[in-house]
Amino acid sequence: MKQVFCTKLFTVLAILFMCFTGHGYAQWYDPDKVNKKAGEIYGKAYEEAQAGQYMESIAHLGEALKLDPKFVDVYLSRAGIQANLRNYKASVADFEKGLEMDKVYSETYLLPYSISLAGMGNFEKALEAVNRFLATPKLNEQSVKAGNYRKGVYEFAIDYAKTHPVNNYVFAAKNMGENINSKDLEYFPSLTIDGSKMIFTRRQKGDEDFYESSFVNGAWTAAVPVGGKINTNLNEGAQNISQDGDWLVFTGCNYPEGEGSCDLYLVYKTKSGSWTEPENMGRIINTEAWESSPSLSPDKRDLYFASNRPGGYGGKDIWVTHRDANGKWSRPENLGPTINTSGDEGCPFIHADNQSLYFNSNGHPGYGMTDLFVSRKGTDDSWGKAENLGYPINTIDEEGSLIVSSDGKTSYYASDGGDTKGGLDLYSFQLRDDIKASRTLWVKGKVFDKKTNAGLPSSVLLTDVSSRKVISRLQTDEEGNYLVTLPVGKDYAFNVNRKGYLFYSDNFSMAGNIPDSPLVVNIPLQPIEAGASVILKNIFFDSKKFDLKPESQSELDNMVLLLQENPKLSIQITGFTDNVGKPADNILLSVNRAKGVTAYLQTKGIDKSRLVAKGFGEQKPIASNATEEGKAQNRRTELSIIAN
Question: Is residue 168 part of a domain?
Answer without folding.
Answer: no
